[in-house]
Automatic annotation (TrEMBL), chain A:
InterPro entries the UniProt entry points to: FAD-bd_oxidored_4_C, FAD-bd_PCMH, FAD-bd_PCMH-like_sf, FAD-bd_PCMH_sub1, FAD-bd_PCMH_sub2, FAD-linked_Oxase-like_C, FAD-oxidored/transferase_4, Oxid_FAD_bind_N
The keyword Flavoprotein belongs to this UniProt entry's keyword annotation: yes
Protein name: D-2-hydroxyglutarate dehydrogenase, mitochondrial
UniProt domain FAD-binding PCMH-type: residue ranges: 111-291
Coiled-coil boundaries: none
Lineage of producing organism: Eukaryota, Metazoa, Chordata, Craniata, Vertebrata
PROSITE patterns: FAD_PCMH
Compartmental location: Mitochondrion
Molecular-function annotations in GO: (R)-2-hydroxyglutarate dehydrogenase activity; FAD binding; metal ion binding
Organism name: Astatotilapia calliptera (Eastern happy)
From TrEMBL, chain B:
Family statement: Belongs to the ETF beta-subunit/FixA family.
Gene for this chain: ETFB
An example molecular function term from Gene Ontology annotations: electron transfer activity
CDD domains: ETF_beta (cd01714)
Listed name of the protein: Electron transfer flavoprotein subunit beta
Gene3D superfamilies on file: HUPs
């Protein structure tokens, strides 16, 4: 940390900031971590650290990629005394067996690996508080981890940070069936919450492909968007309260279940989307909508993107208040689904596919609206083919075509993921330009996503990790996005991989203020270090 | 040969729905619960439509016995490619007591009325798991039956059938007219495409009553009690 700070990097515009990284690489070679206590980690840790650095290094070694991990900050290392303390408060839930810790060291995409040797599994907020208070006093870094389904390397350690897992904090605390407010611990799996609510005639306001594994705490920490944002809005609106533990172990109880409360600054908003860097979320209270009595899913095929956009406009005007999702995927995605997951195309081959979902309280009313919309879409030739599903099983099958694209991509090779917010009419232009730009260098270039929210998921695959390809993709994709004033991370967050690209979408004064807030809430910087905020911020 | 195929489609609780027993233990909760076409009936419809596409038969008639909502199930069959529908209106207590014997009597009567060459049914319904309607219908008509079919091919006025049985696969050849019941691996039902869904709205569904067919739907069975299976106990290691 000292070495990095000593270099007086002045904050400049996005592109020039990144050029400064050439200077970084030349001086990092001399730095080495300092340990004052008897190391728990054995000598082999140095080799692990060196290989971790190589995993993130640039192609020719002289230019370090902005998404590569920075040098290890001088946190202390875990000692036997530390383990004894953890074992005292978490009997049987202090895990040091390397085989058991390993899955928590690697992200879902298998693209980043940490070298943590300690996995802690608290069950109560009190335990989390004791852990953080201790780690803060001992200057031990902590990596809060939920379902570990994040896509920007934010959920796994970079070095030997202690993994603080919320997996055992999975109790539902309360559900008010009149107001629809659910209060639960942060480790509840999203799908389990959905099942619980569905039995009581409610649903979660968010839904994403990772629902079987992701936890609500992690969803809130990353301000997850998902498939229902179009209808129910973002977590900034639906989360009514949070219970948090701050870096020094202080428990901050903002767990209100009130729909309206204008008493002072709304602190919870700061923590929603903070990616575990400002505090650890331990409980959430969230406003849930009623379960719709009638759900229809339509799968349509369009010849051009312009027709797709016109279909979207028609959809909004004719389906209006019953529209709950509008997603798209391109023919490349369909090819990957057919090839790797053996999922058949329900309609004929088209360049673009749309998944539309309607949710309403009256099946006859919705069916009529849907029928009118489909008739109009077909007669005005906006849509060349399609199918409709009302039955649960068929609905799941049609949704899986959109939800499992991410999975299909992992089978296609090493994936480079970009989650971009753009003006809706320009969304597919980025995919076309990227294909032209990369030519044969990439195996597949696909575009899909929440077109209704202006959110594109652009993915490029190659047979194996290819630094030259990465250099061709970045910063091209970020510059393209910045030129439309888009966001370089619409919903995935910054994590490890995108922390240094923040300047493409945020002004430097804003980022500086973020740094001040981080310093105030976490002076020692122990919460999820190396993530979210760029390396060049003074700590 | 009329080239007409009768396909029976049953409206059942959707297989993805969690079943609840009514508090008075007289049956399961059906009000407000999602219903859809019995998956095996879907396979039967798909097979009939395939035969029509191969020009081996001329017309597919979808039949469903039940209340007004059964018409939705017939519409689904029409959207998949059936030509017209017959809704046999049975509601209230009669519908609650409707079982394979009454349905097979209805189907036999319809087969004679429509001069059907083939009756295609699902092997069983996922709500009662009876697996009786196909066999009873064949017996009432004194027609050959090919049950648990996983492959069907027409050869002149005979049908080659592969049946899934406990010991493996049985190949048989039967005369027409015949009753065939579809098993899981017979085919994969198609998604109804938009143009067909639109066309289906215009296809005809005729409503008849069991009495019109000379069928008495009183049941000889009485349901005494319906209860949930015992709760799974926690295991011990």
């Amino acid at each position: 940390m000292a070495g990095l700070l000593k270099r007086a990097l002045r904050l400049r515009t996005a592109l020039r900031c990144l050029c400064d990284y050439n200077m970084l690489s030349r001086s990092t070679a001399t730095l080495s971590p300092v340990d004052f206590h008897s190391p728990f980690l054995t000598c082999s840790s140095e080799q692990v650290l060196a290989s971790t650095r190589k995993l993130h290094a640039g192609a020719d070694g002289s230019k370090v990629s902005p998404s590569a991990a920075p040098e290890r900050l001088p946190f202390c290392r875990v000692t036997e005394e530390d383990l004894a303390f953890f074992r005292k408060i978490l009997a049987g839930r202090t895990i040091v067996d390397p085989d058991l810790v390993e899955p928590s060291n690697v992200d879902w995409l298998k693209s980043v690996r940490g070298s943590s040797e300690v996995l802690l599994r608290p069950q109560t907020t009190e335990e989390v508080s004791q852990i953080l208070s201790y780690c803060n006093s001992r200057n031990l870094a902590v990596n809060p981890q939920g379902g570990n389904t994040g896509l920007v390397g934010g959920s796994v350690p970079v070095y030997d940070e202690i993994i603080l897992s919320t997996s055992l904090m999975n109790k539902i605390l309360n559900f008010d069936s009149i107001s629809g407010v659910l209060t639960c611990q942060a480790g509840c799996v999203l799908e389990n919450l959905s099942f619980y609510l569905e039995e009581r005639d409610y649903i979660m306001p968010l839904d994403l492909g990772a629902k079987g594994s992701c936890q609500i705490g992690g969803n809130v920490a990353t301000n997850a968007g998902g498939l229902r944002l179009l209808r129910y809005g973002s977590l900034h609106g639906t989360v009514l309260g949070l219970e948090l533990v701050l870096a020094d172990g202080q428990v901050l109880d903002c767990l209100s279940t009130l729909r309206k409360d204008n008493t002072g600054y709304d602190l919870k908003q700061l923590f929603i989307g903070s990616e575990g860097t400002l505090g650890v979320i331990t409980a959430v209270s969230i406003l849930c909508p009623r379960k719709p009595k009638s759900v229809n899913v339509v799968f349509l095929g369009c010849e051009t993107f312009e027709q797709l956009l016109k279909t979207f406009q028609l959809c909004k005007s004719m389906l209006g208040e019953i529209l709950s999702a509008f997603e798209f995927l391109d023919s490349e995605c369909m090819r990957l689904l057919n090839t790797h997951l053996k999922l058949p195309n329900p309609i004929s081959d088209c360049p673009f596919y749309i998944v539309i979902e309607t949710s309403g309280s009256d099946p006859t009313h919705d069916a009529q609206k849907l029928h009118n919309f489909l008739e109009e879409a077909m007669t005005s030739s906006l849509v060349s083919d399609g199918t409709v599903a009302t039955e649960e099983a068929k609905i799941k099958a049609l949704w899986s075509l959109r939800e499992r694209v991410t999975e299909a991509l992992t089978h296609d090779g090493f994936t480079y993921k970009y989650d971009i917010s753009l003006p809706v009419e320009r969304i597919y232009q980025l995919v076309t330009d990227m294909r032209k730009h990369l030519g044969n260098r990439a195996k597949s270039v696909v575009g899909y996503g929440h077109v209704g929210d202006g959110n594109l998921h652009l993915n490029v695959t190659s047979p194996s990790k290819d630094p030259a390809l990465l250099a061709a993709i970045e910063p091209f994709v970020y510059e393209w996005t910045a030129s439309c004033r888009g966001s370089i991370s619409a919903e995935h967050g910054l994590g490890l991989k995108k922390r240094n690209y923040i300047y493409y979408s945020k002004q430097s004064q804003a980022v500086a203020l973020m740094g001040n807030i981080k310093a105030m809430l976490d002076p020692k910087g122990i919460l999820n270090p190396y993530k979210t905020l760029p390396d060049n911020l003074k700590q | 040969m009329s080239g007409r195929v009768l396909v029976g489609v049953k409206r059942v609780i959707d297989y993805a729905v969690k079943i609840r027993v009514k508090p008075d233990n007289t049956g399961v909760v059906t009000d407000g619960v999602k219903h859809s076409m019995n998956p095996f009936c879907e396979i039967a419809v798909e097979e009939a439509v395939k035969l029509k596409e191969k020009k081996l038969i001329k017309e597919v008639v979808a039949v469903s016995c039940g209340p007004q909502q059964s018409q939705e199930t017939i519409r689904t069959a029409l959207a998949m490619g059936a030509d017209r529908g017959i809704h046999v209106d049975v509601s209230g207590k009669d519908y609650e007591n409707l079982g394979p014997l009454q349905v097979s009597k209805i189907l036999a009567a319809l087969a004679k009325q429509e001069d059907a060459q083939l009756i295609l049914l699902g092997k069983q319904a996922i709500d009662d798991d009876c697996n009786q309607t196909g066999q009873m219908t064949a017996a009432l008509l004194d027609w050959p039956q090919g049950t648990f079919a996983s492959e069907v091919s027409l050869e002149g006025d005979k049908i080659n059938l592969v049946r899934e049985i406990d010991g493996g696969l049985e190949h048989i050849k039967i005369n027409t007219p015949a009753v065939i019941t579809a098993d899981l691996r017979l085919n994969t039902p198609r998604y109804a495409t938009l143009p067909n869904i639109m066309k289906a709205k215009k296809k005809k569904i005729v409503t008849v009553k069991p009495a019109d067919l000379g069928v008495d739907v009183t049941s000889r069975l009485e349901v005494l009690k319906v209860e949930e299976p015992p709760q799974r106990q926690a295991g011990r290691v």
